[in-house]
């Protein structure tokens, strides 16, 4: 199964919850977090393989010196075991191809879950056979409940902070990560502190949120698309779609 959506939307949380709820139904498993970031290290893929084998076997495996050796050890570890495997934040087609190559070794009944920001990783015909699940932003009521739990420890907004809270939620754009970070940081603060935070929020999002969301921006295919994205969010948010398309077409962008 593939879980995809924008950064901060809750893909990792959903995959982790699914893993924790079902792990004991399998002979072994592994939750491999931040695959993209880990694979960027010089020994990244080997490190991922080492963690996978160690988790499945239930013991620490230290000696894997190459990707090819890791492939063999994964095959041995998964040959007769039903496993539950999660690969979190897969970003590159090469990472995905390695995973797809592993599927033929998995014992009958094993399950694989992949999370990614990049829906186009799954355009290849072989990948399209897996189930796809798009994570969408929360609705208004869900956003209020999530923010309230982190800010006030209950499902309802505090009456003293209701108007300010609704403004904060609006500026979070119903993104779970933003609601969680800002709700936690506002807990037990005075109204004056909330008002100050809201003024800052209107100018810039929290650094933790920006760090996550910037990854999605960096995944855009080239400088032209990134610049187009910046033009849209800078000048066309809330504008009529047809008007925006007409202007962009006039600048040389096709619809």
From TrEMBL:
<dbReference type="InterPro" id="IPR027417">
    <property type="entry name" value="P-loop_NTPase"/>
</dbReference>
<dbReference type="InterPro" id="IPR042197">
    <property type="entry name" value="Apaf_helical"/>
</dbReference>
<dbReference type="InterPro" id="IPR044974">
    <property type="entry name" value="Disease_R_plants"/>
</dbReference>
<keyword id="KW-0433">Leucine-rich repeat</keyword>
<feature type="domain" description="NB-ARC">
    <location>
        <begin position="1"/>
        <end position="155"/>
    </location>
</feature>
<dbReference type="GO" id="GO:0006952">
    <property type="term" value="P:defense response"/>
</dbReference>
<dbReference type="InterPro" id="IPR002182">
    <property type="entry name" value="NB-ARC"/>
</dbReference>
<protein>
    <submittedName>
        <fullName>TMV resistance protein N-like</fullName>
    </submittedName>
</protein>
<dbReference type="Pfam" id="PF00931">
    <property type="entry name" value="NB-ARC"/>
</dbReference>
<dbReference type="GO" id="GO:0043531">
    <property type="term" value="F:ADP binding"/>
</dbReference>
